[in-house]
User: Which sequence fits this backbone?
């Protein structure tokens, strides 16, 4: 009986010791996990701080003019981004408007740009091709770096810089519409756009396209009597050859806003309101005929109080050459 009681007493004495060791082990494990968590959190915080410090040192800009290169068919070939910060950046995304276009790092040698350097990003391999039109000219082009820094600018300003608003009378243009001279094209029917400085004689169903900017501080509405006119330098044919504005495009029903790039199309042989539904052709011209080209605009300013004030403007072009068919 004595031995049994002694064994029971020894067993009771072991239990508190075991529990103490078990609790100590748990405390040690909890402290270790706490230190590990603190270390991981500190490492993550340091990494984020490092990224933020680097982001503060990087700055990219998209600045015109001539930051876009286009083909004669108005396809965008290249866009330039400038690194004006103090750290190397990597370009990872191009957006036009809110649409993702491409990741330049996939085809542009990883798209790294050194401090105070520029990078021309080749867009000729982008599918579908980026066409420079009303949408892309007035949309914001946005570049994003690997660290999340961004730069944005309107497409038209990337190509030609900031339109001057308001205009001044001593400039080379006279009137509220400033013409972008290197964006002058024609096409036959629904065919591709071609540089407007030469056109084959006898071409049918010709539409001319120009690009202009409203440099006034008021909205402008155009009438369908606006026209593009070819006048032969050789006086043959004697009569001018006009193309009238196409009112089926949005600018006929929407005002031309200050600072906005607007493509304007000329299609009809007479004003649309006078029954102009026949497309004009290059007729009566001989081989190698040079033509003076005039743009004549008629419309109204929309004043602050919504009253309309008439305006008229004529812009002379350089010569257009009529070639053989």
Assistant:
């Amino acid at each position: 009986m004595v031995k049994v009681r002694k064994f029971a007493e020894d067993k009771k004495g072991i239990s508190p010791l075991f529990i103490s060791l078990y609790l100590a082990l748990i405390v040690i494990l909890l402290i270790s996990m706490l230190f590990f968590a603190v270390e991981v959190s500190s490492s993550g915080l340091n990494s984020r701080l490092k990224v933020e410090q680097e982001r503060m040192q990087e700055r990219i800009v998209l600045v015109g003019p001539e930051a876009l290169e286009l083909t004669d068919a108005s396809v965008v070939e290249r866009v330039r981004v400038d690194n004006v910060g103090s750290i190397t950046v990597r370009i990872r995304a191009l957006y036009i408007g809110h649409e993702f276009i491409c990741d330049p790092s996939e085809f542009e040698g990883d798209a790294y740009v050194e401090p105070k350097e520029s990078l021309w990003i080749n867009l000729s391999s982008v599918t579908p091709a980026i066409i420079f039109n009303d949408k892309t000219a007035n949309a914001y082009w946005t570049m994003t770096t690997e660290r999340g820094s961004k730069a944005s600018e309107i497409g038209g300003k990337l190509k030609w810089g900031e339109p001057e608003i308001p205009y001044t009378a001593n400039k080379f243009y006279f009137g509220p519409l400033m013409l972008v001279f290197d964006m002058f094209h024609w096409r036959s029917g629904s065919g591709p756009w071609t540089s407007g400085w030469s056109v084959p004689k006898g071409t049918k169903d010709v539409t001319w396209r120009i690009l202009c900017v409203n440099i006034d501080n008021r909205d402008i509405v155009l009438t369908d009597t606006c026209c593009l006119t070819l006048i032969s330098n050789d006086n043959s044919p004697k009569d001018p050859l006009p193309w009238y504005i196409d009112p089926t495009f949005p600018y006929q029903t929407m005002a031309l806003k200050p600072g906005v790039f607007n493509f304007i199309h000329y299609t009809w042989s007479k004003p649309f309101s006078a029954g102009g539904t026949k497309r004009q052709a290059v007729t009566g011209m001989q081989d190698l005929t040079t033509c003076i080209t005039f743009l004549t605009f008629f419309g109204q300013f929309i004043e602050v109080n919504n009253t309309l004030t008439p305006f008229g403007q004529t812009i002379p072009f350089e010569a257009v050459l009529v070639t053989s068919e």
Summary: The first strand starts at residue 60 and ends at 61. The domain at 177-323 is CATH 2.60.40 (Immunoglobulin-like). The first helix runs from residue 2 to 57.
